[in-house]
Amino acid sequence: MSLSGYKFIIVCCLSILQWTGIQAQEVEQPVESKPVKNTFSSIWIIDNQTVMVPYKGTFEFDIQHRFGLVYNGFEDLWGLYAPSNIRLGFSYVPVDKLMVGFGLTKNNLTWDFNAKYAILKQMSSGGSPVSLTYYGNTAIDTRDKSYFANANDLAFTDRMSFFHQLMVARKISDKLSLQLAGSLSHFNAVYPTENPSDGSLQELENDNFSIALSARYKISNAMNILVNYDQPLTTRPSSDPEKPDTKDPKPNLSLGIEINSSAHQFQIFVGNYNSLIPQINNAYNTNWGFGDKKFSLWDPEWLIGFNITRLWSY
C-alpha cells in the first residue's frame, strides 16, 4: 500500500474517533443527586427543633427569651416588663449529622443536655424524598428540695425528665417547607395537682405523647414566616369522675417571623406558652382561653418571645 493510502486510513480513523467523541458528549449525563439545602434556616422553628443539623465543626450559641402574658396591657407593657423566662444554650457538631449540647433555663433552674442526629436527608433527585431527624434531651430541675411535694424523700432521679422526638420534613419548594413530628415526654416523678376551678385533684401521667406541625414560608432571601402547632395526645384523669377535667394540657400555637444571615438567625413571635423545655410545654401548658371558653385569637393568654442564634465554624 502506498504512503497516500496509509494517510487516507489514518485520516479516516481520526475522523471516526472525533465523531464518536462528539456523539458521546451529546449523550445526556445523569443528574447527580445531592442533599437538599436550607429546608430550614435554623435548628429552631420557634420552640420546636427542626430536622436541620449544622455542618461538622459548627459551634452554636442560643438565647431564647419569653416575656410575660399580655393580659395586663399597658400596666406591664403587654408583658414586656413582666417576669420572663430565659434559656442560654450551647451546642456543637463533632461529627457529620450529630449535634450535642446543653442549656440552662431560668424557670426551675433547669439544666438540659441534648443530642440530635440526622438519620435521612432529602435528596434533590432520587434517594430519600424527606429528611428524618431524631432529637432527645434530659432535663434536671435543680431548685432547692423544699419546692418539691416529696421533699423529705426526694431522690435525684425525681428531678429528671426526658424528651424524645422524631421529625419528618420536606422542602416542598424554594419557598415552603413543612415538618411533622411525634414526641414522647417522660417525667420520673409526677404529683397530683389541684384544679382551681373546682378543687378536684388531677393525676398527671409519667408519659405524655404529642404531635407537632411546623411550617416555614420564605418571603425573601433574609426573611421567613414561621408557624408552629403542638397537639398533646395524653389527657389527665380526675380523681373525682363526676368533676370535669379542665386541666388537660392545652395545644401550643405560635407564629412569627425569622430574619437570618450567614451566621445569625433572629426569630420574633407570639405564642401561648412560656416554657423553654419541650416536655414542660407539651405536658403542662394550660394557656388556651379562660375556664371553659373556646379558643379565641382575642384571649389574652399570649406572650411575646424571641430566639437569637449565633454560629461559628471551626
Question: If you had to describe this structure to a student in words, what would you say it looks like?
Answer:
The protein has 314 residues and is mostly beta strands. It is built from two helices and 16 strands. The protein has a single domain (33-313), classed as Porin, CATH 2.40.160. The strands form three sheets. A twelve-stranded antiparallel beta barrel has the order 3-4-5-6-7-8-9-12-13-14-15-16. Strand 1 and strand 2 form a beta hairpin. The chain is globular, with a radius of gyration of 27 Å. The model has no long low-confidence stretch (mean pLDDT 85).
Summed up:
This protein has 314 residues and is mainly β. The chain is 10% helix and 43% strand.
Topology (SSEs and partners):
Elements: H1 3-26, E1 44-45, E2 48-49, E3 58-69, E4 85-95, E5 98-105, E6 110-120, E7 131-141, E8 160-171, E9 176-187, E10 193-194, E11 201-202, E12 207-218, E13 223-232, E14 252-260, E15 264-271, H2 278-284, E16 303-313
Give short descriptive properties of this protein.
314 residues, twelve-stranded antiparallel β-barrel, 43% strand
CATH architectural group = Beta Barrel
Share of β-strand residues: 35-45%
List SSEs in N-to-C order. HEEEEEEEEEEEEEEEHE
**Global mean pLDDT:** 85
* Count of discrete structural domains: 1
